[in-house]
């Protein structure tokens, strides 16, 4: 389901007012009752108060304007551990956690897995197998996800 540019702009502005960053936006479901999922993150914690504040702003801007279906459902949350990391500053929040990183142009089967040790300028440092550190340029990372323990 395609999201109108006007709606995206309203959501980005509402998120930015809370000193957060829009990391993903998903519109799913039936066109008459769509679900609008807004994922936001920030260098600090993303609390339920921040999510509620952003939700109120977005609803206030969208309701009654006919930009999306009248009976839409809005869900605003932090990205959670299962969403990919999109910004370099997000990596800093996850130092010490295991990551699986796929590099640009490399097949998924060649992904690098290890514990995130550090973020230095635009380089991500992973402690991989045999206690070897691997330095990966952020600009070459296609996708990075936290490896969940289950």
Task: Specify the helix fraction band.
Answer: 10-25%
How is the quaternary structure best described? single chain
Task: Provide the CATH top-level class of the largest domain.
Answer: Alpha Beta
Number of strands: 8
Main sheet specs: 5 strands, antiparallel
Q: Stretches where pLDDT falls below 50 for ≥5 residues? A: none
- The CATH superfamily of the largest domain is Cation efflux protein, cytoplasmic domain
Category from helices, strands and their pairing? alpha+beta
- Shape designation: elongated
Order of helices and strands, N to C? HEEHEHEEEEE
User: How many H/I helices?
Assistant: 3
Q: What's the architecture of the largest domain in CATH terms?
A: 2-Layer Sandwich
Count of discrete domains: 2
Proportion of residues in β-strands: 35-45%
Q: What's the rounded overall pLDDT mean?
A: 90
| Rg over C-alpha atoms, rounded to the nearest angstrom | 18 Å
